[in-house]
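Hi Y.,

Following your request, here is the sequence exactly as I used it, all 143 residues.
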Amino acid sequence: MRSLKNTQSVVSILLVLFGLVLVYLFQYFSYWDISLKAVYPEASLSVQFIFNKSVRFLINDLLVVWLIWIVFNNKDYVRLGMAIQLIEMLVLLPLYFILKIELEGPTEISSPLLSQFHRLIINPVLIMVFFFGLILSELKNET
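Below is the corresponding structure, written out as tokens. Let me know if you'd prefer a different format.
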């Protein structure tokens, strides 16, 4: 684990945390409206929902991958973090969208079952578990 005593590391960590807080605070923000609405104004609510949640997913997970780089400065850890993100993006995220759209439609409110799945996928839970696992592994190796 890299020493976090230098100013650049501390500022970078604060930027990542600030970014994660902003994504959370603006979780209902429509990325569709500021990027693709003018090009595809007739897009269905489902398409807009999928786009908005996908952008939020990518921002959250990329911020945590950046945090992994800042804290550990280890390319293997970053590659593994990106692999986890890729699995989430190619398997879990589409599964969530299929279940969500088919069972409930593109609403923000989910049933209790899908609500937990939503938290696991859209919020950076899996990648954060990986991050904290890396911290525990590094602390164990130092002793």
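The CA atoms of residues 18 and 132 lie 18 Å apart.

Thanks again,
Q.
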